[in-house]
């Protein structure tokens, strides 16, 4: 399967919330970086990071806008959607829905993805959920 189709399939599995299937698209030593936080090194860290989102947004889904591939690089542009019905980063559920645009850049080794970097506006996410961006410490 070509890398662009692999990304589409991986996103379908993400939208179903099937983290085990998602991890099958990546090497064991994958470098996964959501630019809003520290990078993950390996499948276990990636799984734990992604689980935070699925606990907070059990209905998390992705609508693809574009997928472009050139050589080992695949870029996917998409919208992330969900409803805050579970605890997310220690914030109790607000019941509010969100929709934010995002872009992922994948690197493929001919068999599996070795790297993914995810870009989105976390301020927009927090704003739509009615959550504070920063905690004020006195």
How would you explain this protein's 3D organization?
The chain is of the alpha+beta class and 138 residues long. It has helices spanning 3-15, 19-23, 43-56, 122-129, and strands at residues 26-34, 40-41, 61-70, 73-83, 97-108, 113-120. It has a single domain (3-129), classed as Nuclear Transport Factor 2, Chain: A. It is built from 4 helices and 6 strands.
Structural class call reads alpha+beta
**How is the main sheet built?**
6 strands, mixed
Q: What is the succession of H and E elements?
A: HHEEHEEEEH
Number of helices: 4
Strands, total number: 6
Specify the overall morphology: globular
CA-based gyration radius: 15 Å
What is the domain total for the residues? 1
Oligomer: single chain
Could you tell me the CATH topology label: Nuclear Transport Factor 2, Chain: A
| β-sheet strand percentage | 35-45%
Query: Per CATH, which architecture?
Result: Roll
Report the top-level CATH class: Alpha Beta
**Ends distance:** 54 Å
- Low confidence ranges: none
Helix percentage: 25-40%
Strand order of the largest sheet: 2-1-6-5-4-3
| Mean pLDDT figure | 94
């Amino acid at each position: 399967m070509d890398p662009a189709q692999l990304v589409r399939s991986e996103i379908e599995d993400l939208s179903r919330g099937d983290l085990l299937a998602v991890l099958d698209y990546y090497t064991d030593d994958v470098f996964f970086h959501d630019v809003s936080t520290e990078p993950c090194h390996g499948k276990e860290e990636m799984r734990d990071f992604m689980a935070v989102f699925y606990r907070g947004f059990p209905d998390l889904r992705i609508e693809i806008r574009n997928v472009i591939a050139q050589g080992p690089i695949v870029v996917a542009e998409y919208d992330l959607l969900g409803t805050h019905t579970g605890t997310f980063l220690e914030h109790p559920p607000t019941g509010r829905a969100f929709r934010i645009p995002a872009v992922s850049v994948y690197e493929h080794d001919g068999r599996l993805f070795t790297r993914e970097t995810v870009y989105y506006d976390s301020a927009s996410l927090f704003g739509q959920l009615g959550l504070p961006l920063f905690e004020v410490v006195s």
